[in-house]
Specification:
Beta Polymerase, domain 2; 16% strand; alpha+beta; 12 strands; Poly(a)-polymerase, middle domain; 40% helix; globular; 14 helices; ten-stranded mixed sheet
Length: 387
């Protein structure tokens, strides 16, 4: 869609030292829009340590039970990507908690054809797996598949299918309620309880917590349940996007883990004091209240990070790169086409693991709705022109 010109950086290097007003502008923008978010790292560490301790307690409580196995949590979203459109005290720290089937069960993905969405939606069918130990007859293990209901009832063996499922499908709302109850009961035994008061906030499909210090400072945390697709960086998420209300057995495809991994890859490859995260934060602050999607902005930046040499994202190029981002975004609005970053993208870093279908898939257009609504396109272009 858009051609990116790297040559103008080289042409401007000779006069850059004399262009002090531009450097002054960078300083003004940095101060006015609070482009640095130094508190993110320390708060991320608190959240990561909390999840590690909670999951350790869950392993002690739920090992050899019918409850799903909770895998190590993965930080996602802007806070774990290193930027935020909000002030640091308003950032929600989101982590994916991957679920694995417990012993005696298996998860099978089935396309959900009952609910229409631009994203792929799936149901997780829970099936019983034989756990009979005929090879070791001295070890008596009850098998949900082959032992009688009377034997199971006598030994008080509960079933995942009868507790956290609706029909044969894993239920996101029941998972959330189970985990919220666990967090409340386990809070007193985790080390963080000595430094924070914890409140579980209402949430149907995730576990939202607010950690509060004696000083009154709060730390919002959201735990989202997920299931990994194969060994890729693409997950199915229990928490739908805003304004979406799918059935409780519908799990939506999420690219949040792949996005966080992409930004970690860029941070390792970029020059010291790279401005890409500040550009993203600045543009997000500029677009605040405009109606333009922050996700579309982030997708734009991800595309440009693979199109513009990382050496050209040094701090002194902040205004130039910001201009590139807004121009690219406007070009996409004009064309009514913004390619999804993870579908059919030949510039994808090798470190990002995608299902084979993603590599072969046709591009997914994030601006498809504009092709069907000319008035919305005109309004979006007017808003961007004002910026």
């Amino acid at each position: 869609i858009c051609e990116v010109d790297n040559s103008r950086d080289a042409e401007s290097e000779e006069s850059e030292e004399e262009d002090l007003p531009e450097m002054d502008m960078i300083g003004i923008f940095s101060r006015c829009f609070q482009l640095s978010v130094p508190k993110l790292a320390s708060r991320r560490q608190v959240v990561q340590e909390l999840l590690t301790d909670l999951l350790q307690v869950s392993q002690n409580l739920f090992s050899d039970s019918f409850f799903p196995v909770l895998e190590p949590a993965i930080g996602v979203g802007c806070a774990f990507e290193g930027w935020s459109p909000q002030k640091s005290e308003d950032v929600v720290y989101c982590m994916f908690v991957p679920l694995k089937p417990p012993r005696g069960y298996s998860f099978h993905l089935e396309p959900d054809i009952t609910w229409e969405t631009p994203l792929q939606s799936m149901c997780l069918r829970v099936e019983l797996v034989c756990t009979c130990t005929r090879e070791q007859p001295d070890q008596e293990v009850l098998c949900l598949l082959h032992h009688s209901q009377e034997e199971l009832r006598r030994n008080q063996v509960a079933s995942l299918l009868h507790t956290l499922c609706t029909g044969p499908y894993l239920d996101g709302e029941k998972i959330a309620l189970w985990f919220q109850t666990f967090v409340i009961s386990a809070w007193s035994v985790v080390p963080q309880s000595r430094h924070y008061r914890m409140k579980v906030l209402p949430s149907r499909r995730s576990c939202k917590m607010e950690l509060m210090k004696a000083s009154g400072r709060s730390l919002p945390v959201e735990l989202v349940f997920s299931v990994q697709q194969g060994d890729s960086d693409i997950f199915l998420s229990s928490q739908p996007a805003e304004a979406q209300f799918p059935p409780s057995t519908t799990w939506l495809e999420s690219y949040a883990v792949a996005e966080a991994k992409f930004f970690r890859h860029i941070s390792m490859q970029a020059p010291p004091h790279s401005c890409h995260l500040k550009c993203l934060r600045l543009c997000a602050r500029l677009l605040e209240g405009s109606g333009l999607s922050v996700y579309a902005l982030k997708t734009t930046v991800m595309h440009l990070l693979t199109l513009i040499l990382l050496s050209e994202w040094q701090h002194r190029h902040l205004l130039m790169r910001t201009d590139d981002i807004l121009r690219y975004l406007r070009c996409c609005l004009e064309e009514k086409r913004l390619q999804h970053f993870f579908f059919g993208n030949e510039g994808m870093p090798e470190e990002i693991s995608l299902p084979l279908a993603f590599q072969r898939a046709q591009s997914l257009n994030l601006f498809q709705h504009l092709a069907q609504d000319p008035a919305a396109q005109t309004e979006a272009l007017q808003v961007l022109d004002k910026l």
